[in-house]
User: What shape does this take?
Amino acid sequence: MNNKQKKIGLYALAGLGIVSIAFGYTQYVKSPNKDVAQDCSDLNSETRSELFKPTIENKNNKPNITAPKGMVWIPGGEFSMGSDVADESLCSIKGITKDATPIHRVYVDGYWMDESEVTNDQYEAFVKATGYVTVAEIKPTVEEFPNIPEEYLIAGSAVFKPTPGKVDLNNYIQWWDFRGGADWRHPEGPNSSIKGKGNYPVVHVAYEDAVAYAQWAGKRLPTEAEWEFAARGGKAGDLYAWGNTLKVNGKFQANIFEGEFPITKGDTGEDGFVGIAPVKQYKPNGYGLYDVAGNVWEWAYDWYSETYYDEISKDGKVVSNPKGPETVPYDTSGNNEKKRVHRGGSFLCTSEYCSRYMVGTRGNGEIRSAANHLGFRCVK
Assistant: This one.
């Protein structure tokens, strides 16, 4: 694959929303302190206690059956959904996470949820049983990209590519590379493999790829409300799934990016990993769920709208089992993208650029876009 193909492929993916897969509306402002991820805690704890009312869990509603393998029971109930942190990276970039406001009361029924993200081994079992082929493995069509010569349309996906030095963080093209042959079996490109990585999260899955697996497994993707209720683990208003400070007893609680983003060797690996990690490497939350922050983004069922929370909460009533907008919302990006919600952040989330490992914040991505930091988990 030549450089021209890479460049055209990446710009094509950009037109389909690759920028929104991880970072959405980012406007870069230099972080006042490169250690902000380590030092920033809940700066609004008094206000937060007023904005977030207690979670009211459903009681005695667990089905009298053996738990499905690898799943845990989430009781559901009423909780305060959203985030009062309107700044990306907590202390440095203003107004980025406003799509997670206002905080509003939501009720969800109980459900089973995968205790971890779907792994390579699990996805491989699905592919072997069905012969399924993912979006990243299929050559794009001229109908999808009418302005690009057919010889430049090749199967592949987006892979994070560190930069040699510091760069303007407004220009995401600098650290994303469209690689022909990159897919779930070859997460870094055609010369890579998942051999020995069966317990790593599967990546390079577009929305329809995640849905296909879920249907085969007798499951479905979680709604955004189900995902957040579960990620909070019964707590109300904590900044993270584990509390209000990024470190607990001096240790990171999730696989994120520490250091200078996005430069080569910029990730210090202080959390134990540089890049993606196997599942279940950190303590589970209050419901027994692993990796609800960092590692890989996770698809949710809902169509994405940056104004959805405002629209459903205007009357002040508790919203019951919300499933997102009923139709594809108007796309404010200007690219006519069809987006679904992402949750949880990834190993590329950093204090300098994307702190959406914060439990109430949101991500989004075009439904046929994939990357090497995007996976999913299921519910039933």
Notes: Residues 31 and 121 are 39 Å apart (CA to CA).
